[in-house]
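Practice problem: predict the structure.
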Amino acid sequence: MTTSTILLILLSVIISGAVAFYQYLFKADNQNKTNWLLAFLRFISVFSLLLLLINPVISRKSIETNKIPLAIVADNSRSITELKANDVEKQLFEKLSSNSALKDKFEIQTYSFDEEFFAGKPLDFKGNQSNIDNVATNLKQLNKNAFYPIVLLTDGNQTIGNDYVYSFQETASVFPVILGDTTTTFDLKINQLNANKYAFLKNKFPVEVFLQYNGNKAISANFSIEKNGKKISSQTINFDKKNKVQSVQILLEADRVGLQKYKAVISSATKEKNTYNNVKNFAVEVIDQRKEIAIISDISHPDLGALKRAIESNAQRKVTLLKTNSISDLKKYNLLVLYQPTASFRKVFEANKNLRINTFIVTGMATDFNLLNQIQSDLDFKLTNKKEDFTSSFLTGFNLFAQNDIQFEQLPPLENPFGKITEKGSLNTLLTAKVNGIEVGNPILTFSEKGNSRSAYLLGENSWKWRMESHVMNQSYEKYDQFIDKIIQYLSTNSAKKSLLVEHESFYNSGETIEIFAQYFNKSYELEENANLSIKLTNKNTKSTKNYNFSKANNGYQAIFDGLEPGNYAFQVKETSSNASYNGTFEVLDFDVEKQFVNPDVSKLQQLANQNKGEVIHPNQIDKLIQKLLEKDTYLPVEKSLIKNSPLIDWITLLVILAFSLASEWFTRKFNGLL
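Answer:
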């Protein structure tokens, strides 16, 4: 309380006393007890009122002691059970968290983790994955700017997440408590297998396998890949104390369309404690995407060679160059590229009326535009005989397929007759024409889609210069070839727009979160944000069926499944209001990543301790750890000096006293006839 406040309070006492004395004692003929009582009550009333006006504040200084956090984090994944360390972990966790000496010195924080991070969750060792990196991320958020120890009860075997050795904050000391038998156990393991999820028919696809050996003796092992119970690849792999990891690359033949299932197996004559990690199932979906493309032209032009090379840069495309007088049968072709149609093309167009093969029409100075006006209804050509050079302008609103701007405006101009080209139908234009940098309103590359029929128009010759210039700019033909490939991919597919689109994989590993994504479009092909989508999931093995609803997701809807057993599943997605439906299948492969380990990862945990100023602890050293934590001077509590300002008397109390004194004074005067 300041000196000025004390002086004001003393002045208030004097004023209150003077007022009370003057009103009840100074004028009184005889100073009886009633007068003294009334004077006292008036003193209290005036003094309380003046105190409310002054509002004196008292500052109190106090010392607050903040304990250092001690984070005790337990691994709750299934690998702890597989290593038969679950009972030991529970005992250690309880011993650390209930130790009274640690409680006196630290603020005990107890957590557990598997793929997620939990506070207060009982240990049940049912987690499907281990993510120690996630532990570090969460502790950073919970204990910002604090210097504190972390006791990590784990086997050190992480199955998802970034390398946890460098994830923990610098102000944390990590003490890993190693769970599981650290005695080296003989074990062969398929550590990782990489294979594409898709392959093309009649192609070879690569499989990369990383094999790991745990042991000290030199051994020979057999690695094989099986399909339908038959070995399709086999080789001998040698390991020794220095060469404990081997990588194998194999090419497999994609000889059948559909989901092809394989099994990778490593074995030896020596008996192993854990054979579960000797096998890894994988699957590859083989797709028949081979397309026969016919380029028809009656003239010779460099564009023909450039188009052929660009299209055939995709191994699944085969191009045949034809003249109109050498055509016998068009049925085998998936797409017709009609280069600069002339009058002789009339029979090609007539034959295609019934076949309805999609077309890619390229025009130029030799094109018969009168014929084009007669046989198609997408564009109206009113052109002169004068040649003009047209540069291209890229339209960002194009949405038929994903295409980036490959610097089209910097590519050489295309030649086409000068004049007006009018769009007659609903077209999707990717490139528009410029002359001397000015838009002329004509398309250069545009697409038409009518039902299942698709057409494209490239209005100008000399696109071979585009390919050459793209190579100059990028030191590769790749960008131009991919641009042409996307056009061919779009045109060689006759699938009409569907109202219900569903995305899913053909197979998943057990323990994975399975997500099925769906989009529903209205009649205007706009994404419907209030669709009611449901999914009926059937286990083909057990015939059991369950129904689920989709939930809203970014730009669509999703259904998520956890804990599905290995096996084959069929599902049907349905939209309630329109009855639109989609049927699909997938397989859950038998693969449990938490059963892959026979020993804790001691070297990794040692790295973690060294990196974070901690120490590796074995279960029988837990008392040593407790003693170390108690004795270490850097973990002393932090004292903070706090100054708390509070009123001398609570204002509500003063109001009550003021009201009581005024009321008592009034009743006393009334009782004694002084009113």
